From TrEMBL:
Residues 185-391 form the O-methyltransferase C-terminal domain. Pfam families: Methyltransf_2. InterPro entries: COMT-like, COMT_C, SAM-dependent_MTases_sf, WH-like_DNA-bd_sf, WH_DNA-bd_sf. It comes from the Eukaryota. The keyword Hydrolase does not apply. PROSITE patterns: SAM_OMT_II. GO terms for molecular function: O-methyltransferase activity. Keywords: Methyltransferase, S-adenosyl-L-methionine, Transferase. This is O-methyltransferase C-terminal domain-containing protein. GO terms for biological process: methylation; secondary metabolite biosynthetic process. Belongs to the class I-like SAM-binding methyltransferase superfamily. Cation-independent O-methyltransferase family.
Length: 430
């Protein structure tokens, strides 16, 4: 009988085998085997334990498949596809639709067949590719996305080529310089023998920066999609002709997303690099060219746009240690009018760890990655409040809104002593 491949049937199978396994294990030991440290270190392997082993294997398989289906192919891709598949463009060499032999594939990607089979043998167990018959493979939804989506492929390459080597240096950093708080002292800098930081390396090797830009475009879909920003703030309440400054906005994707829904607003996209042509091209292509302009500005310098309705800082602050975030915010506060809003769009880490929450697990992994790459982090509401107060104590967090399904929150900072939310300053937007 084939294994189920829909969520309901898989959930039923998980429940069935979990009950079988739990009953069998409780006969052996009165303790709660999955939580109590007094439980056995290994599951029994004697012939009498065949039922336990069968149910355990069935439970693991069904729960992994349920997990993979619930995540969807894009999110699973970020955690399971290997650098080798991306580097050698193996996914692109597999026909869509159809199958290909290992022999033909090894010739196309210029890898020895034994090496290729080793890599793909593991990849197949994670849902990347599938064997149709002995010696032949075809695409799965995950591998097909990798073949068709160079942005997500760039995300995998960035992690494997840059984040993983940096992570290997974290222990040494904590041993030698545990109080390091500058990007130039990060684990990344140690891994790449770079006295600056990740962005300094990108300036020296532009191909890395281009890959990172593609990667960020790919990873900011789904739970990090700019559309969450569109519904997460009351843009309609801003005055006709109101100016939104998109600080560190790169090509202006988030400004374009908002402009398409709110034609009464004007947007100024700012970045340290000159993206004026691609920014305008993107805006024109999306039919909002008249609403958007570009300025080459560093957020570490005084902002030339005074008194804007909104200063939008999306996915910037988590790249920087506190002292740099304070400088970014202080520059914006000095440019702002008494009625301006500063909107930080970044993750807000819960004050207490929920070990069962997948979204939180992903969020905390990203926070650790920010620390490895930049000596930065994803912040709690209390930590956000602290950097705001350090920048200018006259400003405070007015509200934190988390759009449904979003990994990022909108942190609304205003020149006010009043708070419209609960004690934590956090609310869910329904």
């Amino acid at each position: 009988m084939d294994s189920p491949h829909n969520l309901s049937d898989l959930a039923s199978e998980v429940s069935l085998h979990a009950q079988i396994l739990e009953r069998a294990l409780k006969k052996q030991s009165p303790c709660e085997i999955l939580q109590d440290p007094r439980g056995p270190k290994l599951y029994p392997r004697c012939p009498a334990s065949e039922t336990i082993q069968h149910s355990r294997a069935a439970l693991i398989n069904a729960s992994m498949e349920l997990y993979r289906l619930a995540l969807g192919p894009e999110d699973w891709l970020k955690m399971s596809v290997t650098y080798v598949i991306c580097h050698f463009q193996i996914a692109s060499a597999v026909p869509i639709p159809g199958e290909i032999s290992y022999h033909e594939l090894s010739c196309k990607v210029d890898l020895p067949i034994t090496r290729l089979q080793l890599v793909l043998g593991y990849a197949i167990t994670t849902g990347v590719f599938r064997e149709t018959r002995p010696g032949y493979i075809t695409h799965t939804p995950v591998s097909m996305i990798l073949a068709r989506d160079p942005e997500l492929a760039s995300w995998v390459e960035h992690n494997c080529d840059e984040a993983f080597p940096a992570a290997a240096k974290l222990l040494g950093l904590l041993q030698d310089n545990p109080k390091a708080s500058d990007p130039s002292q990060s684990a990344f800098s140690a891994a790449f023998d770079n006295r600056g930081g990740l962005f300094d390396l990108y300036a020296q090797e532009p191909w890395r920066g281009a890959r990172f830009s593609r990667a960020m475009k790919g990873v900011t879909r789904g739970t990090l999609d700019a559309e969450h920003l569109v519904i997460g703030h009351d843009w309609a309440l801003l005055r006709n002709g109101g100016v939104v400054v998109d600080v560190g906005g790169s090509l202006g994707h988030q400004s374009v997303a908002i402009a398409k829904h709110f034609s009464h607003l004007k947007f100024i996209v700012q970045d340290v690099d000159d993206f004026s042509e691609p920014c305008q091209h993107l805006a024109n292509d999306q039919g909002v060219g008249s609403q958007i302009e570009f300025q080459q500005v560093s957020f570490f310098d005084a902002n030339p746009v005074l008194g804007a309705e909104v200063y939008l800082v999306r996915h910037v602050c988590h790249d920087w240690p506190d002292q740099y975030v304070v400088k970014i915010l202080r520059n914006l506060m000095r440019a702002a009018s008494p009625t301006s809003e500063i909107l930080i769009v970044d993750s807000v880490v819960p004050p207490r760890v929920d070990e069962r929450c997948f979204m939180e697990r992903y969020l905390r992994s990203i926070s650790l990655q920010m620390n490895v790459l930049f000596n930065a982090l994803e912040r709690t509401a209390e930590q956000w409040a602290s950097v705001v107060q350090q920048a200018d104590p006259r400003w405070s967090i007015y509200c934190i809104t988390t759009p449904p399904g979003s990994m990022s929150s909108i942190i609304d900072i205003r020149l006010t002593e009043k708070r419209s939310c609960n004690a934590s300053g956090t609310k869910e937007r329904s």
